Amino acid sequence: MPYDWKLLYRRRRRTPDPYRVMYFDMETLRAAALLNWDDPTGTRDGTITGATISPTGVPAKSCFFDGNDYISIGAFGLSGTALTFATWVRCSLNPTVSQTLIGDAAESAAIGYIVSLRNANTDTLRWDYAYGTDHGSATASGFFTGYNDAWVHVAVVCDYAAKTCKFYRNGTLHTTVNMTGTPVFPSTSRTRYLGAYNSTPIHPLTNGYIDEVQLWTRALTDAEVLDEARKLPARG
User: Fold this and answer.
1) Fewest beta carbons less than 10 Å away: which of 56, 146, 216, 233?
2) What global pTM score does this model have?
């Protein structure tokens, strides 16, 4: 499917959404780091460790991770009561290692954090969170069914105040999950990683591609999520 460079340009240069704090197209560099289009200072650009820019992507290039790779993003805090995480991903199921899409540098039962991953041995997409006394996981069973080694648009809308987590596949609502206890919004300033949970990495993304990563500090509507999934088609 051909892609529209004018559409891509308009997307990047459109009126900024003040709630969007992160957008990596995975192909644009600034001072040898991946450019975060929503950070003009460059302090939240992505430092690549091992990951390579691939000619396969949405719409043109993506980042490929081979299991020990990750991209670290300068520490920054978040504010609000809801988050929306969206990305294109293409990965094959690894029976022994969970595949992290985005993860904070640390987890705590009392301090909010972000971790989203595909469970090992399953097609489940998971969003992990703290709720004061323990860790919780909102899960979307069967999310990746039929999408092994195929591009799929992932969106997670997590409303910490409403205690709901919505999972969207290719712009369509897949599952809504109620969250346990009183979920803690991840406001703490800490380094975040794409493709791994912290720089060890404990849960890498094995043999997979990530592209068009975005994070908002608000809950996108159904229509907005669908619009994001339709803007740029996967190719390759």
Assistant:
1) 146
2) 0.93
